[in-house]
Fold this protein.
Amino acid sequence: MTPAEKLLQSLGIDDPKEIDLEAIAWHMGALVKRRPLDGCEALIVGNQRKAIISVNSLSIETRQRFSIAHEIGHWHYHRGRILFCEGRDFGSPTSPISPEKQADDFASDLILPNYIFLPIVRKIKRLNLKIVRDIAGQFRASLTATLIKLVMSDYFPIMLVCHSQSGRKWPCRPPSLQRFWFPREELDPESPAFDLLFRGGREDTIPRKIGADAWFDFRGAERYEVHEQSFSLPGNEILTLLILPDSAMG
């Protein structure tokens, strides 16, 4: 069990509705204040015993919640330091180990603790973005953070791929996925994801089937089919959920 999950259990929390981040911060000696911030999403200033967490009040609720949890992570790991957390610091699952990555992981475990999250996930019969949005709503988490948590749970043969118009930005792959299932750099023009990103297409309401060779270039990829479903992100980017064959897991 991770430090964040141990903290939640020590407080007797066993339901997503009980994850009150401001109360948790107060329990740890940190006061949360919301105010407009310029150039960063959040910052924490404190000594060894007390701290003030400032969060950008202009951001959406899920971003503010992640920012608070992220700063609580800094308070847990990096007490006594002053850290300014920009929006670009959050959320990429491929970031190298750093204070920001440590705080990101702590935030994920605080908002989406596995001991509450996984029993809900295991009840899913057919995966799609609507189901994940519903779960994200239960935890008051962003869709992106919930999807990353879902992928890293290693329960489904799925992956995430983030693209901008200049190409692939990052993939998020479950630990047990076989190594050759690694996505291409560029989107295939026949892919619904390409249509959404480059032609202003609409987001699909259900995953759509496509040949695996549209996404992967390993030998024999043309023998497989995958399902994809994408949604738009800020900054003219998209995030695609790929549902792979069961055999893709090692």
About this structure: The chain has a mean pLDDT of 93.
